[in-house]
Design goal:
about 450 residues, alpha+beta, 18 helices
Length: about 450
């Protein structure tokens, strides 16, 4: 391939990536300099930003979003899941790895740059990043956040909703092939009542619940309505709906199982099912089954809608190291951070076996996620955005949050940022390969 062809292909790919970010957050503005707020906010800033945390305002990715991502419990009901065990102590391997990893390059919307350049570019708004290899910390930086501060996971939290379902499958309390209305009788006769548990896990519901650039711009879309409901914002005629009511009214757009259509509402269906089967609030069930077994530094904050619904699709907060601990639960190194195995071998096998969803991924939102990541995965699977042939797993968040896990190698890459366009997603695969080539 000649230089001109390479340049042209790179231009198209980077512009596709830029288009993804621009359309994914239509109100996005320039990223803020997060280093200036690392040590906190003034009284005036906190009062101003607190009063401006509506659904549309938070899509902007600017100062309001950045403040809110660190202070959600000031504006929303919050279930606090305490760290019940003594915190685990990570071993470190920081003699050579940081310099090697900082030199890793990726082709991003900011150009072909090193990890060091990406982290230090104000446009990336990187607040914190940690990399584990075989359970050891090999890289860690906090340019815009103190290590003890919690931060929004955003959609990185979606696998938490799937994890409770995986446990219930392991226990024989439900099956992948079961219909939703088996557990949620109030969904009988609705489009989502006909879908199966696996179709929810893989986000192939065939319903008008799609969360996309176009649905976020449409004030009458199901996606916009369920997001507004979470912020206690009226839809029409002063009526404030609940997410459950909105999803009960979702319509059928095609056969389930055919297209990957990303949707936070579909994640919330898993929350409702877990609550019905366990007869516990989702927060209590996750605390008992998962978080109480993690040797965390701090509490996990599960933020709630006005009706008390746990917003496990993304409105979850924790310290960065605790997000990394969560990622390590999906590896053979789980015993370094937990007192029991909470992600079973059987669950892991179901997650990484993404071949069944390859066609649906390619037809649907795989066309958005592949440019985001820079390397095409096999497919999405069970609330993870991408599964690679070598077992790598990725889940991203709207404003540049990310969690990448390479199970067998014990690699976990976790990061927080608040940027309309974060380059860090493009680094997860090159970083993972750099670690495994040693």
């Amino acid at each position: 391939m000649n230089t001109t062809m390479k340049t042209t292909m790179r231009f198209k790919l980077v512009n596709t990536l830029s288009l993804f970010f621009i359309t994914a957050a239509p109100l996005a503005t320039a990223a803020v300099d997060v280093t200036k707020t690392r040590d906190g906010y003034t009284l005036e800033q906190s009062q101003t930003y607190s009063s401006a945390t509506g659904y549309k305002e938070l899509l902007g990715g600017d100062s309001v979003t950045s403040w809110w991502a660190e202070n959600i419990s000031r504006t929303m009901l919050t279930a606090v899941l305490p760290n019940r065990l003594p915190a685990s102590t990570f071993e470190t391997d920081l003699d050579e790895w940081p310099l090697k990893l900082e030199a890793v390059t990726a082709d991003t919307h900011l150009g072909e740059i090193t990890l060091s350049e990406a982290i230090n570019d104000p446009r990336a708004a990187v607040k914190a990043m940690i990399i584990l290899h075989k359970g050891k910390v090999v890289f860690e930086t906090y340019p815009g956040l103190h290590p003890a501060n919690s931060h929004l996971w955003a959609s990185v939290a979606k696998p938490t909703a799937a994890l409770l379902i995986e446990q219930l499958i392991d226990e024989g309390k439900l099956n992948d092939s079961d219909r939703v209305d088996t557990y949620l009788p109030d969904f009988a006769g609705t489009a989502l009542g006909e879908t199966t548990v696996q179709q929810l896990l893989d986000m192939v519901p065939g319903s008008d619940t799609h969360d996309s650039p176009s649905t976020r711009r449409d004030p009458d879309s199901v996606a916009t309505r369920y997001y507004r409901a979470e912020f206690d914002e009226a839809y029409k005629d002063g009526k404030v709906e609940t997410v459950r009511e909105i999803l009960q009214g979702a319509g059928r757009t095609g056969p389930a199982g055919e297209r990957f259509e990303y949707s936070s509402g579909i994640t919330q269906m898993l929350v409702f099912i877990a609550e019905a089967v366990t007869n516990q609030s989702w927060s209590d069930a996750f605390d008992e089954r998962v978080w109480s077994h993690v040797r965390a530094d701090g509490a996990l904050q599960v933020h709630l809608a006005p009706d008390g619904m746990a917003m496990a699709h993304g409105i979850v907060s924790s310290r960065l190291r605790d997000l990394a601990r969560y990622g390590l639960l999906y590896t053979p190194y789980w015993s370094q951070v937990a007192d029991k195995q909470v992600v079973s071998d059987a669950a892991m096998a179901r997650i990484v076996n993404a071949e069944h969803n390859r066609e649906a991924y390619a037809k649907g939102d795989g066309q958005r996620f592949t440019p985001l990541l820079g390397e095409a995965p096999v497919a999405n699977s069970r609330q993870w955005d991408a599964i690679y042939a070598d077992g790598g797993m990725f889940k991203g968040g709207l404003f540049g949050q990310g969690l990448y896990v390479s199970p067998e190698e014990g690699i976990v890459i976790a990061y927080y940022s608040t940027a309309p366009a974060s380059p860090l997603h493009r680094f997860v695969r090159p970083l993972s390969k750099a670690l495994t080539q040693e």
